[in-house]
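Let us work through a complete example step by step.
Step 1: write down the sequence.
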Amino acid sequence: MKQFLIIFVFLLAYRILAIQAEDQSTVRVFIFAGQSNMVGSDSQVKNIKDFPPFKGVEEPQNNVRFSYLIGRENKAKSNGWITLQPINNIVGPELSFARKVTHFIDSPIAIIKCAAGGTHLGGDWNPDQPIGFKMYPLALKLIRNSLADLDRQGIHYQLEGFMWHQGENDMFEESYMKNYGKNLKNFLESWRRDLDAPKLKFYIGELCTKTIWGMDLRPRMYAISQGQRTVTSNDPLAMYVATSHIGVEIGEPVGLHYHYGTLGQLQHGANYADAYLRSIGREHTTVRSLRGWPYKKNAKLNLFILAGHRNMEGERAFVQNATRLGMSNLLKDNPNIAYKYSLGGGYLKSETWEPLGLVDYYDTFGPELSFSQTLLARRLSNITIAKFTHSGSQIIDWTPEGSMAKSRHIYPQFIRFVRKALSELKTKGHAVQLTGIFYHLSENDMSFYPYRKNAAKRLQSIVSQSRIDLNQPRLKWYVSQQQPTDAKDVNRIDVVVDMEKIAADDPNLIHIKAFDLPPQKKNLVLDTAGVVEIGRLLGKRFMEHN
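Step 2: predict the structure and record it as tokens.
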């Protein structure tokens, strides 16, 4: 029996190795298609240097084949397979996607890309009656020719996934918007039929709510997202890929933009890579666990809640830049502080309490690191921190009533997050003081007149209802506000005065004017030094009030 078992294990191991060897000789082909945010519009290769986690991604990736047809009137064409590299000095999501995927799998990969800005699914990409730029037949021809070229070279391949980011232009045609889900379902079925790939997986990219369209066209964006979610909920081979939390280009004069830009495209590709790796069971996760519970039995704990949007999340605060600025001491895990988090509206969440420190989130961090360091310097003990952020949200998403875009309503999630943190600490035998909620005022709201006009009033409703829902009538809110956007179109609203008024009427709302931050290159978003300073300021003001 023992001998039989040994033989069986040997044969099983041999079979696994054989499958792996076979897999490593098969080229996995990925298709990238869509409109401008799939093209890479308003990104620039020269700006990659500003985002150190992606350093070098602009270099040719000699181990990745690339075939493309990009653009509308003036198309860029590869005319066959080339080495993966930037086209026309723009950054497409395929660059970071390929680098990450090839890091985690040994099989060779190839990418076929067909994308054009300003195209719609209802017309240009319509499989049955394409009009306008007739993208569907163009893409189908490109894909078939590219695969036929691999056949001629005797290269074995398999269609591995179809990455799709599109939908903004369908918002402007009522019938296209209304029927987006129906059209998308037909689109997926048509590709599987026409490519003779009935099991082809699709990765449907979320339309980014951080852009100006996510604000001024909220109902239309929501309609498209509902169509996407309906398809991905009912198609087991289609996955919805969140993108609202990733970077967005900073426009002029107010900061808002329509496109991801360079940082967003780099993270966009990483998100597709994560989704694909997750679908094949190769998801990369960093295990961060407390070696032991850091608090004495029955100790009274101070729970600090950090919450907010882009800068509380730390969109442009990079680990590498902190090191360059001599802040390496901030980046070390602190096993004496238990940390819980939900970032990007739930894109990355801690399963258990972890040591306070860096999490695997685009090599970025928020004010929590310098905040805790400031508290420790003042000898505050028994600190616990829970952080809830969504950089793709606006204040209206945090209000108790939310908006008509129900999938973007995060107030209930936020309250559940706080309650759960409290409950878990109490279950461990601790008395817990909810010391305060530290909220950094939404950056995007400051740049759009209707949102800026209502920002203070909406924040007041969040504060008031949170005290009721958490049964903490005197719960303190510490609200930091950076210099709001300075532009003619929005300066009619003095949002600083508005905030001063609601703080004056509420003794437990502490308004923190973060107006002396290190100089920033861009509107709205803070860089590493700015995010660190926000944390220090929040900690300092807390200690002054306690």
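Step 3: interpret the result. The two ends are 72 Å apart (CA to CA).
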